[in-house]
Amino acid sequence: MEIKNKKIKQLVSFVICFVVMAVIAVVRDGQILGHKMRVMPGDSIAKNVAVDTMYHTKDNVTVINTTSLAKDVTGFGGTVPLEIYLKDGKILKIKALKNHETPEFFEQASKLLTAWNGKSVDEAQQLKVDAISGATFSSRGIIGNVERGLQYAAKNVHEKSFFEKMDLNTKTVAGLIVVLLAAVVPLFYRKKTYRTIQQILNVAVLGFWCGTFISYSLMVGYMSSGVNLWTSLIPVIMLITAFVYPLFGKKYYYCTNVCPCGALQELAGKVNKRKKLRMSQETAKQLGRFREILWATLTMLMLLGVGFQWMDYEVFAAFILQSASVVVLVLAVVVLALSIFIPRPYCRFVCPTGVLFKIAQNSKS
Q1: How many domains, in total, are found in the chain?
Q2: Does the pLDDT at position 121 exceed 50?
Q3: Do residues 217 and 298 both lie within one domain?
Q4: Are residues 32 and 77 in the same domain?
Q5: Which among 159, 180, 213 is the end of a domain?
Q6: Is the per-residue pLDDT at 134 higher than 90?
Q7: Domain hosting residue 13, numbered range
Q8: pTM of the full structure
Q9: Going by C-beta distance under 8 Å and a sequence separation of 6 or more, which residues neighbour residue 312?
Q10: CA-to-CA distance for 198 and 160, rounded, in angstroms?
Q11: Where is each FMN-binding domain found (predicted)?
Q12: For labeling, which of 43, 136, 254, 315 is most exposed (least CB within 10 Å)?
């Protein structure tokens, strides 16, 4: 009976966290899973501009707005609507509309916007454009929106094959292999040597190469705009290890076995096995409370409709070196240096995302 009650409490905690994230998505974006829930301040203006999917300007330029065409195509923080300008059958320019991508990431991905300039619709549809390294999800959002817009322009919607939808390039395949290894192998095999190898793979492949990790920005974006499963297989598997595994007794599985940030901190700690900074239980307890107070404060600010910008400064973003801000990089260096002397300092004493996991699995430790 006691076990059953624990499971019910854990499930209730999970639902509460889901509801909180849903409310935050509504407060920030006015929608849940792509469905409009409330009118946002800029909606009336946006509606006047994008009443039609396609309209014509006075100088005979045809403009295709992808807002309604690509509701299921998301970047890192949500949908990435575009306007495609066509004249005499060729693309003049592509313009990004308002979105919730991390500014530094989207600035990098925006370099793609000129890739189709001067091409005819047919030529542009055949053009293979690769994602910008360091801004993969934002890049995919742009590429997906361009594809939908061009399909609409050509009035010939081409249904992608299963493998085309998955975008199985070398990076994606490597990331899938590593995240599946992290999600499955530690359940059955717990040797220290393998754990070190897995952590190196998590850091090198999931972190620095794929730039994939769970963050508040990612979760709010998914809650707001929904998840395009085909282009988000790696983060979806990560989310399963973070929220579903604990329902079956595997608490903190993502943090312990999958998270590239946690892996990097643990690897840094292995460099110095002797001269660790000794910390009393009371000090560790107070620092743990600081993490919870920080999470509660940030959550309250978001529920009040302010302070969303903090999500752009989670230390995870430092893995994407090309796009990370100076502030994030400095924080990452500090965390890495502390990790040599203190086991997983960011995970234990700062990480707001980790607190959400803790609450979702109804854990007291």
Answers
A1: 3
A2: yes
A3: yes
A4: no
A5: 159
A6: no
A7: 1-36
A8: 0.76
A9: 102, 103, 104, 217, 325, 328
A10: 34
A11: 75-153
A12: 43
